[in-house]
Amino acid sequence: MIDIHCHLIPNVDDGPSTIENSMEMISEAIKLGITSIITTPHYNKSIYRSDSVPDNFYKLKQSSRSLGVDLLLGYEVFLCTSFYDIISQKRKYTLNKSKYLLFELPFDIMPVDINNTMQKLHSEGLVPIIAHPERNKYFSKDMDKFINLIVPHCLVQLDAASIAGVYGLNVKRFTKRLISQNLVDFIASDAHRPEDYKNWYPKALENVKSWAGEEYCNKVFNSNQNIILNSY
Ligand SMILES: [Fe+2]
């Protein structure tokens, strides 16, 4: 499997604070059969400083080489504060410098201009992937809003913990609905600590397998992610 959303780099966001914690997370991912990981620190200038991301990533990549995992760099971009950086520096903040941009929206209040923002990203040659829309209250409460505003413009990534039920029954039900309507492109760990791999990822895998079958699982945990790794 391939993980395209997680927080593994030490000391750059709300993920691990030491390289030992990062290594522990990578070991848990490998135990599950994850062979490639795009680690995606938060890019949100109002909360985190991103200056040390490249150096800390490189150190982690060196340290984890012996574990046999392919560690790559991307970002989880908070569009509301970062839109102009994304446009002006195009592929600096995308997944492994591909055209795919992983972004998140505020959890409680929907930004007013989603349509225009998405169109602008497309016109710059980027392919937006929305991270964990099931955790955005305005979507989980209003499927039509999700279908009208997100489906035409974005690929969709769900969090394993949401599918496992960590964020409550409503969020879990919404993930099941999205999966049953074939509106999901990727499932990722969004891991911030080892337990996120150990506890929630296998549970999500089990749920998706029982909801949609093995072939579907392979698509959303592995083969769609492979398209990103092989793109430019
Ligand atoms: Fe995340």
Automatic annotation (TrEMBL):
Cite the InterPro entries for this sequence: Caps_polysacc_synth_CpsB/CapC (IPR016667), Pol/histidinol_Pase-like (IPR016195)
- Recorded superkingdom: Bacteria
Instruction: Write down the top EC class of this protein.
Output: hydrolase
GO terms assigned for molecular function: manganese ion binding; protein tyrosine phosphatase activity
Pfam families, A to Z: CpsB_CapC
The family this protein is said to belong to: Belongs to the metallo-dependent hydrolases superfamily. CpsB/CapC family.
Name assigned to this protein: protein-tyrosine-phosphatase
* Organism name: Ruminiclostridium sufflavum DSM 19573
